[in-house]
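Field log, afternoon session.

UNIT: design team B
ACTIVITY: writing a sequence onto a fixed backbone
BACKBONE:
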């Protein structure tokens, strides 16, 4: 696993758009780092954000942290 990701890589990994990522950064939910002119996000910060996302409840009332599609 890489330590730092570019904005594009973070968007792809998190399945969110650039605008949403920048909203999360502006709200202080995900910190950004600068290396020269390059803007990067630490893998640990992206993982921490993903881990705090709410889980969905299934019809049976149990919590599910994974998503499955019905065919």
């Amino acid at each position: 696993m890489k330590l730092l990701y570019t904005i594009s890589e973070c968007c792809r990994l998190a399945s969110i758009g650039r605008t949403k990522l920048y909203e999360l950064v502006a709200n202080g939910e995900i910190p950004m780092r600068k290396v020269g002119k390059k803007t990067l996000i630490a893998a640990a910060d992206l993982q921490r954000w993903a881990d705090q996302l709410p889980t969905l409840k299934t019809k049976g009332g149990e919590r599910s942290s994974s998503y499955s599609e019905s065919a």
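LOG NOTE: Strands lie at 4-6, 33-35, 38-42, 56-57, 63-64.
NEXT ACTIVITY: expression trials, pending approval
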